[in-house]
Write a structure and sequence with these properties.
By secondary structure, the protein is α+β, with helices and mostly antiparallel strands. It contains 4 helices and 6 strands, in the order E-E-E-E-E-H-H-E-H-H.
């Protein structure tokens, strides 16, 4: 699952929460897709159409799309990569996302209490949203 995405000058860089893939870089002009794996290996796949890249980027499982749509393209193995900085960036992004969810949860709880105070009724939809956020934070 994609964690972050940055696009600049036709280059799309993304970080993933995946069992095997850390990051990718896709060049929209050349159609080259470079993937860095958790073990530090990196591969460049050539001639990857935008539609296949979008499948890869937006998939729940990048590995499945890699196997079904990306590996059919020609590739070269690039040099090994020190993944420590990428792993740290992913960890930092996940922690920031968790903190943002906690902030949102706090605000929703405040609104929920305010609704109860103003009309003495429990809004089930509000309560369900709070419950969903709590579950996401615990994951």
């Amino acid at each position: 699952m994609i964690l972050t995405r940055n696009e600049n000058d036709q280059i799309v860089e993304a970080l993933y929460e995946s069992s095997n893939i850390l990051s990718s870089k896709y060049d929209k002009n050349t159609k080259d897709l470079t993937i860095i794996f958790k073990k530090g290996t990196s591969y460049k796949y050539s001639g990857v159409p935008s539609k296949d890249y979008m499948r890869f980027e937006t998939a729940e499982s990048q590995g499945k799309v890699l196997n079904s749509h990306i590996k059919q393209h020609s590739f070269v193995q690039l040099g090994d990569v020190n993944v420590d900085d990428i792993v740290k960036e992913i960890k930092d992004n996940k922690e920031l996302e968790r903190l943002n969810k906690i902030t949102l949860l706090t605000e929703r709880m405040r609104l929920f209490v305010s609704e109860i105070d103003s009309n003495a009724k429990v809004n089930i939809d509000s309560l369900t949203k709070i419950e969903t956020l709590i579950k996401e934070i615990k994951e």
